[in-house]
Design a protein that fits this description.
The structure is a single chain. The protein is an all-alpha fold and 145 residues long. It has one domain. 72% of the residues lie in helices and 0% in strands. It has eight helices and no strands. It has helices at residues 2-5, 8-26, 33-46, 51-59, 61-75, 81-97, 100-112, 129-142. Helix 5 (61-75) crosses helix 8 and helix 6 (81-97) packs antiparallel against helix 7 (100-112).
Length: 145
């Protein structure tokens, strides 16, 4: 849905998000990883130009940011920031081709990536509820929500 509606401005925002992921990866800025990923996903959703979709995404953005923070913490040992940036660059490259079917297929595969399986882990394997709560509190205070 997003690729056909992508405008130069929307594509520029996605490119900027990927470049920031890459820059922060080169500087080993782990503390910005979740926020950087969140920025990329916001820009990806914005490609659609679909106001209601963007509003829906914004409505759940704090929860997504918390999830991304926990997810990054859980996978930091198995995926470097550089690998994460390269994964997102690959999605951008497909978006830029304008081939909707290939882009959607890549997004489905990305959802199956081990990095996105935090929600399938047991508390013993992932973050314990107390850790998740502290993570949420830090994110909420950081973004004044």
């Amino acid at each position: 849905m997003a690729v056909p509606a992508a405008t130069p401005g929307r594509l520029a925002a996605l490119l900027e998000a990927v470049e920031l992921l890459e820059e922060h990866a080169s500087l080993s800025q782990e503390d910005t990883a979740a926020e950087d990923t969140h920025r990329f996903h916001r820009a990806l959703v914005a490609l659609s130009g679909h106001r209601r979709l963007e509003e829906s995404y914004r409505a759940i953005s704090l929860q997504l940011l918390v999830y991304m923070t926990m997810n990054r913490r859980a996978r930091a040992a198995t995926e470097t920031l550089t690998q994460r940036a390269a994964r997102h660059r690959g999605i951008l490259d497909l978006v830029l081709t304008g081939v909707v079917e290939e882009t959607l297929a890549a997004l489905r595969v990305a959802e199956l990536h081990p990095a996105h399986r935090l929600r399938q882990r047991t508390p013993k394997e992932g973050l314990r509820p107390a850790q998740a709560g502290r993570c949420f509190q830090r994110a909420a205070s950081r973004y004044a929500l």
